[in-house]
Structure formats: structure tokens, C-alpha cells
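Posting this for the archive.
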Amino acid sequence: MKVTYKLFANFRDLVPEAAANGRLEMELPNNCDIKMALEKIGVETDGGKAALIIINGRVVQEDNPVRDGDEISVFPPLVGG
């Protein structure tokens, strides 16, 4: 199945193909969940590495299934002062 990742902030640096516009299309195996989908691009869900994960405009957890054509937006923890 094919999905589109939208990567924000420093997550763009993890995948050189996404550096310019933050978007990446990738084939994933069937029966994939968010945790597996993010591990494919080097984003950890454990320990707060991915603070916010959205599929098709809806906030999801790492055990949420991924379907063909999904758009997965991934945000790192926000910091600042």
C-alpha cells in the first residue's frame, strides 16, 4: 500500500527525500500500524520522539492501523521559551 508522510521541523532531516517540502510517498506492507510506518522512516514513537501523529486530519495513537492512501503527519515535541 502507498502512503504519504508529511514531516515537520527536524523530522525532515531524517529522510533526505523529504527535506525540500516535507513530503514523502512510500510503499508499506499490508497490516501496518503507525508505529511500524514511522519506524520505516526512522521516527521513534517511544520516549516522546513523535509528539503528535495525525492521519487524514485525525489525531491517532501508535497502534492505529494504516490504510492505502493515508496521509500521515508527524510532529516532533515543541520546545521554546
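The mean pLDDT is 89. The longest helix spans residues 34-39.
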